[in-house]
Design a protein that fits this description.
The chain is α+β, with helices and mostly antiparallel strands. The chain is 27% helix and 23% strand. Helix 3 links the parallel strand 6 and strand 7. The chain starts with 27 loop residues before the first helix and ends in a 13-residue tail after the last strand.
Amino acid sequence: MGEVKRGYVRPLDLKHGCVDLTHGSGGRSMVQLISELFAKHLGNEYLGQGNDGAVLPAPTFRGRPGRLVMSTDSHVVSPLFFPGGDIGCLSVHGTVNDVAVMGATPLYLSAGFILEEGFPLGDLARIVESMAAAAKEAGMPVVTGDTKVVERGKGDGVFITTTGVGVLPDGLELGGSRARPGDVILVSGSLGDHGVAIMSKRENLTFEATIESDTAALNGLIAAMLATGAGLRCLRDPTRGGLAATLNEIAGQSGVGMMLYEKAIPVKPVVAAACEFLGLDPLYVANEGKLVVICDAPDAELLLNAMRAHPLGRDACYIGDVIADDHHFVQMTTTFGGKRIVDWLAGDQLPRIC
């Protein structure tokens, strides 16, 4: 048997190994986990500085000073792996989108991992690799991070918190308080895909067609929309609470009402069937790669054309109008010709969906 080299450290066993408490202790094992897994896949010039924080260049937009936009989100989705994605790419997409809907160009991410003792290192590697691919595709590198390990039974595999920073050009203002009566409501595609994909996996349900999560980074689609110069009021990604919660929030912030048209709201037949089977309303089901748009009515067609020219907006459509309403109700004209209130959800249809 050959002589063992001095200072030799056995590489991480990504096939059979598991997270243990030493991986969060601040010692050699933690350094090894960071260097052989996180830095290997997420590494870049800023993360490589190796300090408690990353020193970043001053943000500019097209060579001019811009304003910072910052957003943070925690991800506790169950299961960790689902059709169309996993907690790794989801944690990137969620924060990229929260920055992008403000009109900002996403720049940098931070990532915090809470790992449970005993979690398979192979699964952790899958998550980190997925996260790295998503960050690279979105052009938003992970520049700093943190890892903690909790005892077996005191976590649930992996929780991830991401914080994103972006740059917003002067003169661009988007927000939930900017909707006005006469504006129109657009969506970038079919609703409910993510929530139903999670629920189907969680309950081991199968349908004639596979339901996949729509998780995606929307910054490219949003950049194409902004380039049109159209009169955008507000952009939102309808995640927890779905379309209904998103529009109720905007209606309250702007002091307006909304009128939706059920026939115009896109829901895939297999998702609609799954919702009916599960007793869910697709208006309240989470999405992770869709966009709700409030815009000036004369610019709606211009925006729809720009959205449909992008892969993530091919099925974009007009679904409703912003109206004057002192009560700030979101209403819907049903397929039967009646009207109903689309109110806030009283409880939680699908817990731990993102």
